[in-house]
Amino acid sequence: MEPTALLAILIPIAVIQIVGWATPGPNHLTIITASVTSGRAAGIRAATGIAAGALTWSLIAISGIAIIFEVFPPLYVALRVIGAGYLIYLGSNAFRAARRGGVFKLTPGEASPATTAPFRTAYLVMMTNPKAVLFFGSILTAFIPPEGSQFLMLIIVLQIGFLAAVLNIFAALFFSVGPVKRAFENYSYVISIVFGVLFCGLGALVAWDVIQGFLN
Question: Which of 137, 144, 135, 121 is nearest to 23 (CA)?
């Protein structure tokens, strides 16, 4: 494949991925919680969990398995329900933490799953994130030519994984910087409430969208 033709495929995918990353959502909240609560190492583990999820979804997309969601819609609905439930679970943890001073002031034994198991939590958030399903199941596949070679597919997967790692590690590093971390810790109670509302709100929106799908 000519370099210009390759760039014509890779650049739009990268741009859409960056725009999706810049949109606040559960991925960012998970990385922030891990970074501020347990420091840079935990934040980076959460970032690599998100990147691993992106890599998994990209492999699913290029293998054509994403078509199953179109052929068997209940599977997609089930994934969204699980995602909604998991986000609400994380939000309820943030509310419980607020009653004990805030999620950024808890000991590891009391803290959010994003603190105690940052990689696993971030990976689960990514794998059950409806936005990820939209990106990898429809938007990404729209830019992959049906006649694309295995080499092209490999390049696309590697680009997505690398870019996801770079972007999310950058976020982890930023939120683990001293002044930023102290600001979150000083307002731990308020921010815990905000995170609880955001996690639960995102989960409720996904759940409501699923319900509307049944009503329509």
Answer: 135
